[in-house]
Amino acid sequence: MNLKDLLTKEVIKIPLVGEDKNQIIEEMVDVLHAAGYADNRDTVLNAVLERERVMSTGMGDGIAIPHAKTDGVKNLVAAFGITRQGVDFQSIDNKPVRIVFLLVGPSDQTGPHLKALSRISRLMHRKEFRDRLASAHNPDEVIEAITNEERKYFAL
């Protein structure tokens, strides 16, 4: 499971313009839907928001990984965004979020969803990599940073 295989230019948005957690999640679901990766926008949005109500996906260090499993997608899909201003995600460290990965998988497929969450989490623990992502100005820079980081740490 390589993140570079999940993220294409059309599912990367810089900057995200939402001003709160729910607006950011909705904006990212809209990115997936516009790219043709989410069959039913409302089903996907409701699943992600419901998961977020259970427990915040703000993992600290300015990162959030909203995610859900739903019948609104056929395959595991992802979107990526950067906010220019921090957004309160009720993160575990109480710090605002600037980097957001949205991950949505089909209800009947647990393995790929968990592998992708694990990979994102492991990569995001590297401060240098987080800083590189946060300073990206376009989708090409994001894809290049992720590809290089995966090569370095996962021997692609």
Can you describe this structure?
- The chain has 156 residues and is of the alpha/beta class.
- The protein has a single domain (3-154), classed as Mannitol-specific EII, Chain A.
- 45% of the residues lie in helices and 22% in strands.
- The chain has 6 helices and 6 strands; from the N terminus they run αβααβββββααα.
- It has helices at 3-6, 21-34, 41-54, 111-124, 127-134, 139-154; strands spanning 12-16, 58-60, 63-64, 67-70, 77-87, 97-106.
- Strands 1, 2, 3, 4, 5 and 6 form a 6-stranded mixed β-sheet that branches.
- Strand 2 (58-60) and strand 3 form a beta hairpin.
- The longest helix has 16 residues, at 139-154.
- The chain is globular, with a radius of gyration of 14 Å.
- The model has no long low-confidence stretch (mean pLDDT 93).
C-alpha Rg (nearest Å): 14 Å
Per DSSP E runs of 2 or more residues, the count of β-strands stands at: 6
Q: What distance separates the N and C termini?
A: 10 Å
Question: What string, H for helix and E for strand, traces the elements in order?
Answer: HEHHEEEEEHHH
Give the name of the CATH architecture: 3-Layer(aba) Sandwich
CATH class: Alpha Beta
Beta-strand content bin: 15-25%
User: Percentage of helical residues?
Assistant: 40-55%
Number of helices: 6
Which of globular, elongated, flat, extended, rod-shaped describes the shape? globular
- Structural class designation: alpha/beta
CATH level 3 topology: Mannitol-specific EII, Chain A
